[in-house]
Amino acid sequence: MDQAKGPRKGRTIGKTNDVNADLIAVVVAVNDAGPCVLTIEQGAALPSGPFELAHRSLQSGLRAWVELQTGQPLGYIEQLYTFADRDRVGANQRVISISYLALTREEDAGASGRRSWASWYDYFPWEDHRSGRPPIVLEELRPRLIEWADGADDGATRFDRRRRAAVAFALDGRAWNEELALQRYELLYEAALVEEAKRGGVLAILASVPGRSMIADHRRILATAIARLRSKIKYRPVVFELMPPLFTLLQLQRTVEALSGRLINKPNFRRLIEQQELVEKTGATTAETGGRPAQLYRFHHTILDERPVAGTKLPIARA
Amino acid sequence: MDQAKGPRKGRTIGKTNDVNADLIAVVVAVNDAGPCVLTIEQGAALPSGPFELAHRSLQSGLRAWVELQTGQPLGYIEQLYTFADRDRVGANQRVISISYLALTREEDAGASGRRSWASWYDYFPWEDHRSGRPPIVLEELRPRLIEWADGADDGATRFDRRRRAAVAFALDGRAWNEELALQRYELLYEAALVEEAKRGGVLAILASVPGRSMIADHRRILATAIARLRSKIKYRPVVFELMPPLFTLLQLQRTVEALSGRLINKPNFRRLIEQQELVEKTGATTAETGGRPAQLYRFHHTILDERPVAGTKLPIARA
DNA sequence: ACGCCTTATAATCAGGTAGACTATAACTGG
DNA sequence: CCAGTTATAGTCTACCTGATTATAAGGCGT
């Protein structure tokens, strides 16, 4: 039966190398409360489901599962990563997970039962530096990471662990790098400081650190999505996928700040956005901002086609 | 049998959603002749094979297939893209392709029969702008792209096609963007100007354009790899994976130029490399360069760990 | 030996950009 | 009408980037 379809060059004669392919979605939106991810199971899982014969493509399969499980239609989609799950190997079958990042607006939502929006920072409380470095880093993470580093057998490993922890979490006077979200999660996993590490057979000697966990490796996938998005907003104008049709420059800035987890210098942000000609004034203003009424802008769509390189460089405050 | 393994949440009751997963490798090296890709079948295919139960991970499966088919051991690997092949759908089975980019040095090669190194630019002759814009762009591509654009039914589509062609191939005074390698191939495919388009059921009215083709969608995967690599060398120091242990700054520059397909200003390149502290002098020199003997450098490995952000920005000459 | 060619290496200069900061305008709410 | 809040414009400086020129050190042919 395996040999029935097309030129497989005979490489799999006599074997079945069937796998099951799972599609997993990280659906991101930003509201006043900050950056959110679409979840099911009361925030414990990302929308997902197997790739089926009925699906025209991977992306359409993903859209189908997300819409079925959450009622959320998806717009912008990009692939994140594909990995084979070592822990879910059957007798003659393995599972491959193909993860995607989707950007949407929360108001697109049609009401649906099982879904809920959860803040990124419920899962990664150490990632939000908008009000300066969160206390959890120095109070909780640093001592436990040092404990983990010093638990290594040889001096070289101890040194290396300390260095990696310092780079990832901006210790010892280093600068915070918001794009290292995935490295940070993986470091905490390696140090058995997140709940998921215990499930993986690691006997966690150290207690878990604050931050909500998810089933399987869903939190790891979310960390991948955050890192990718934080990197991408700097060279591609993807932020606008998260904005309503009309918005003020401060709303745009707040969205970028929510994603990157750090504050941006206001005049510089405005200058950059305006000189890049990514937006255009509509002439309308809104008085709902509290102070002087703000101009309402809209995304300049044509620019997307003309300058495929152009990005939205973010002037992020240094210290 | 499908239900036997672990919590599948009953989503696939009564169905088999098995797929076959293929691993495909774009193995890149650079020699004096330029950037090369490792091929089998006399340059008609990339190394590939199905993901099997015996493989510990996707990456190790890929390494196994490449080494078996070409004798080439792989060092640096990164995932490119995963896609479901619409054209290879069986009764109860589909094929998923997971493509990877690998960087290596050609001298790593152990001799092996079926393999051969082929220049990128045999497959994409329009991509090499090191000696200025290649004649093929204006002589072959432009007239056929215009013909294709004007063949559209409505004026809006005609305008859009012309704009896309101009952006991708730097027509009408636009600047060449080497990172658009994939868009260019896809545009030529859409215009039925590459041989592969005919196989896809498209009745090619227009004749094919110069440039060697490959089986299935292997040339498309190669284009993806080129675009990814051309983008990545600008923000991550991956070039060094392609360099011998000791090299001169000009050799490094020539390698970057080979990949990006365009020339770099020499003093600026040196300044950038040196101030980034990505390399260190060995003290040794080589006289094999023809003129004054050049310093031999080596890659400064420790920098990789310390500055995960740092890249190798390329000062690429504008006009 | 000499000059010429080739490449290596250092130094300089101008324009642009990014970051930080200051100043002024326009509205709301007490 | 004043205080608070936000919007918007402008400035100043350090650094980066692209471009160019100058000098050094080898090989090679005559």
Automatic annotation (TrEMBL), chains A, B:
What CDD domains does UniProt report for this protein, alphabetically?
A: NUDIX_NadM_like (cd18873)
InterPro entries in the record? NMN_biosyn, NUDIX_hydrolase-like_dom_sf, WH-like_DNA-bd_sf, WH_DNA-bd_sf, WHD_NrtR
What is the recorded name of this protein? NrtR DNA-binding winged helix domain-containing protein
| The NrtR DNA-binding winged helix domain, residue ranges | 239-299
What organism does this protein naturally occur in? Mesorhizobium japonicum R7A
